[in-house]
Amino acid sequence: MTRGIWRYAHLFADGGATAAQARARGWTLGEGDTPLQQWPDLAAELGLRSLALKREDLNPGRSHKDRGLLYQVAHHHLAAGAPSTFVVSSSGNAAISAAAACRATGDRLLAFVAPDTAPSKRARLRDSGAVVIASERPINFARYAARVFGLVNLRGTADPVSPIGYRSLAGEIAEQAPEVDAVLTFASSGTSCRGLLDGFAALGRPVGVWAVQAGVCLGIARARQPDLEEEPDNPAGRLGIRNPPDADALAEALQASGGGAVVVRRPELEAMADRMQTRDLQTSAEGAAVLAAVRRAADGPLADRHVVAVITGDASQWARHGAGAEPAPDAADGVSDYLALRALLLGLGLEPV
């Protein structure tokens, strides 16, 4: 039996063409098939019919982004007909997943990161073969590289293909929890939410999808509650997209599914992290935020429902679980302006289009 995302070819938008070719070429990260863990005592306490944790943090890249990025890279590689160079602006899970996907397909990744990105993350990216470029403007520099040199930008809001791989998550949840009627996942750009919505729609399953937001990433929730205030000291969503361009449309789609958006504040998140610790469950701040959102909505829209909470993200990225402070990153791989960036890209053998 085929494992990983490619066995959900029937949910993908191209009739399974990308999946068939990727499967034949052996392109996989070992992604997917993550366990679904029941938490019956918390479900009973909150008045839910059931509560299960979908452990996407057990993917090789420690997040569900392994699914989305593998599909993106495979799709664009096959469309180009040859190895390509991709760009992504991320200091977290997206860059790590993109680097692993490019290594699997034989493509090259330019990972634009913030200057304060931890040395351990930079090392992990380099170990996967990525070219790491530090900048105070990683998003803008990635856009420049994509536009001027004709490269595909893998950032969720820049690529319409980005939600497709997450449909496999909907397929897996539906198999593991046939009774599910509510799924919550952390969202900044909302790419994974869109993939879940499309996946459940393709399956004909009426499942409410909920975007959990926190910190400075409140764009989807603000589409319905414009007066929400940011919480800069909240550890969840610190590296995410604040204002996704399709926030209004996504908020409408979430509501139409029977879901919506839930905002979690830092005290709620930390209280839930303490509760998770009693089960020896360490996860990212975003993972704790999802369970805090379940608690917040349990006596309202989630009452008496079968709930799946998507747990994603590397626990070590949260200082609460990390190994301690890292040394300050050096500036050896940094660029400060567009002229320096252009020179670097030309030195990599790229040509403007």
Quick one: CATH class of the largest domain?
A: Alpha Beta
- Class per helix and strand makeup: alpha/beta
| Molecular shape | globular
The biggest sheet amounts to: 6 strands, mixed
Strand order of the largest sheet: 1-2-10-7-8-9
Q: Helix content range of the residues, please?
A: 25-40%
Order of helices and strands: HEHEHEHEHEHEHEHEHHEHHEH
* CATH domain topology of the largest domain: Rossmann fold
User: How many extended strands?
Assistant: 10
Q: Note the beta-strand portion.
A: 5-15%
The CATH level-2 architecture of the largest domain is identified as 3-Layer(aba) Sandwich
Short structural summary:
The protein is of the alpha/beta class and about 350 residues long. Helices cover about 40% and strands about 15% of the residues.
Provide an overview of this structure.
This protein has two domains: 26-62 and 163-317, 3-Layer(aba) Sandwich (Rossmann fold); 65-160 and 324-347, Rossmann fold. It is built from 13 helices and ten strands. The protein has helices at residues 17-24, 40-46, 65-80, 93-105, 119-127, 138-149, 167-176, 191-203, 219-222, 247-256, 266-277, 285-297, 338-347, and strands spanning 36-38, 50-55, 85-89, 108-113, 131-134, 152-153, 182-186, 208-214, 260-264, 306-311. The chain has a six-stranded mixed beta sheet with strand order 1-2-10-7-8-9. It has a four-stranded parallel beta sheet with strand order 5-4-3-6, with helices on both faces. It is globular and about 60 Å long. It starts with 16 loop residues before the first helix and ends in a 6-residue tail after the last helix.
